Amino acid sequence: MLASRFLLGCWLALAVLSLATVGLAQGAVSSGAILLLAVLKAWLITDGFMELRHGPWRWRVLLLAWAGVLALVVGISLNLRG
Q1: Which residues span the membrane (predicted)?
Q2: What is the pLDDT of residue 54?
Q3: pTM value?
Q4: Which of 1, 45, 50, 63 stands the most exposed, by the fewest C-beta atoms within 10 Å?
């Protein structure tokens, strides 16, 4: 039952973060805030749904770093665009 509550909490957090992303995209908010929300969602998926918080730390670091690298590359490309 505890795992079900945790997964439900992760799902609700992902839904709220997704709605926040849509809301921020409608306004004049920097892309950095939207990318930060994307990294937070990746963290929730990695630790929550994939349950890597109980798994090998190397996999967890690898997947979280990958989300950070992607956000960094997208952020740089958006800033280069002007």
Answers
A1: 59-80
A2: 87
A3: 0.83
A4: 1
Confidence band of 20 (pLDDT split at 50, 70, 90): very high
The count of structural domains within the chain is: 1
Distance CA 38, CA 53 (A): 19
Q: Which residues contact 14 (CB under 8 A, 6 or more apart)?
A: 41, 44, 45
**Among 22, 64, 12, 76, which residue's Cα sits nearest to residue 40?**
64
Query: Does position 1 have pLDDT exceeding 80, yes or no?
Result: no
The string of DSSP letters for 3-14 reads: HHHHHHHHHHHH
Domain that holds residue 40: 2-81
Residues 32 and 72 sit within 8 Å (Cβ to Cβ)? no
